[in-house]
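Support case: S-adenosylmethionine complex. Customer-provided input:
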Amino acid sequence: MSEIRLFVTTTEKQAAAVLDVMSAIFEEDDYAIATMEIDEKRDVWEASVYMMTDEEESVRSRLAQALEVEFSHLPIEREVLPDVDWIAKSLEGLAPVRAGRFVIHGSHDRDKVKPGEIAIEIDAGQAFGTGHHGTTAGCLEMLASVARSRPVRNALDLGTGSGVLAIAAWKLLHVPVLATDIDPIATRVAADNARRNGVVTGLTFATAPGFHSTTFSTNGPFDLIIANILARPLMKMAPQLVANLAPGGSVILSGILAEQRWKVLAAYNGQNLKHARTLWRNGWVTIHLTR
Ligand SMILES: C[S@@+](CC[C@H](N)C(=O)[O-])C[C@H]1O[C@@H](n2cnc3c(N)ncnc32)[C@H](O)[C@@H]1O
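Agent response - structure generated as follows:
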């Protein structure tokens, strides 16, 4: 699923007014977030709605309706953002990847696993997460370090993709893990991967956008929440994510470009989480926060 941006181009003052309208209509959505930014090359302002959803047409019509009163003269433009081609990215590289105690390998590399390593077998396929991307590797490394420092009795992997992080958490911690994704193909692939890795109980899969499912209250609150999604949805869902975190719990966030980390930290500091550690991998950051 690609990230789509619907936006209007205007002056700074008018962009701020448009942003107010956008924020009001998308306040309750998990998958759409409104923001404004300057395009320095053209010296114009853009008020945008970013989303990862199949419901672009419905978002567009709600937006058009809301802008029709005061801003109908501003055309709604559209951009497909290139940095979320998860499936193409999951096909990058096939050699085993090592992070923390984990080695993620394809079925052709079973003999490369060394004694003492926690092996996870994932073949590149229809969902993101072979371990090659800096965000996945960062989460694996952070997971190993959090497990050394804090007791974890259950975990949530939000945006599970191939299921790699959920399987890693289960193999490392031996605790119940809930794994969810907005994309039903991902949850099916993740469940298949779990079976291939010998995980038959203790790992639950569900398809849900953000926290919109009763499965979170049934299985939570969680001592550990891992969310490798994207900076904007992570900021948007900060209040719900923290509401599902157990007292003393840990959060691992990734999918964040280095330059976006301050905004993400500010959103979670605003929910009373404290920064514990940041890891950098290929321009991406993975952040550990605690309650
Ligand atoms: C970068 S991939 C991460 C996959 C895997 N967890 C990993 O670390 O390699 C992000 C995943 O989050 C899912 N996703 C995006 N927005 C979501 C949302 N609002 N709620 C749940 N899942 C979401 C995508 O479908 C995708 O599978």
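The chain has two domains: 3-84, 86-290.

Case will auto-close in a few days if no follow-up is received.
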